């Protein structure tokens, strides 16, 4: 679902990002974002270094509402972990 917010660009060119969006995408002070143009739209997106994530569940904010992808990856990891914990040759 697309959501739209309206905000104001200040004298220095700063654009406040609504708290709901910051929380959903794990943006905090010092977070990096990418700014791009799509036709006549300006798009702001999280710029996420790969090293930031320690687990698959950390990616939920990046993938947004597509939690099926995360659930599938986590289930595959659980199966792998079971195999890793088995004694050799069992």
The rough form would be described as elongated
How large is the radius of gyration?
19 Å
Please report the first level of CATH classification, the CATH class of the largest domain: Mainly Beta
- What is the number of helices? 3
- Could you describe the largest sheet, including whether it forms a barrel? 2 strands, antiparallel
Strand order of the largest sheet: 1-2
Straight-line distance between termini: 47 Å
The figure for the number of domains is 2
Element-by-element helix/strand order: HEEHH
Taken as a percent bin, the fraction of beta residues is 5-15%
CATH fold assignment of the largest domain: Pemi-like Protein 1, Chain: D
Q: How many individual β-strands?
A: 2
Averaged pLDDT? 78
Low-confidence stretches: none
Work out the helicity level. 25-40%
Structural class: alpha+beta
Just name the CATH architecture of the largest domain: Ribbon
Describe the structure.
- By secondary structure, the protein is α+β, with helices and mostly antiparallel strands.
- The protein has two domains: 1-47, Pemi-like Protein 1, Chain: D; 49-90, no CATH class.
- 32% of the residues lie in helices and 13% in strands.
- The protein is built from three helices and two strands.
- The chain has a two-stranded antiparallel sheet.
- Strand 1 and strand 2 (41-46) form a beta hairpin.
- The chain is elongated, with a radius of gyration of 19 Å.
- The protein starts with 18 loop residues before the first helix and ends in a 5-residue tail after the last helix.
- The mean pLDDT is 78.
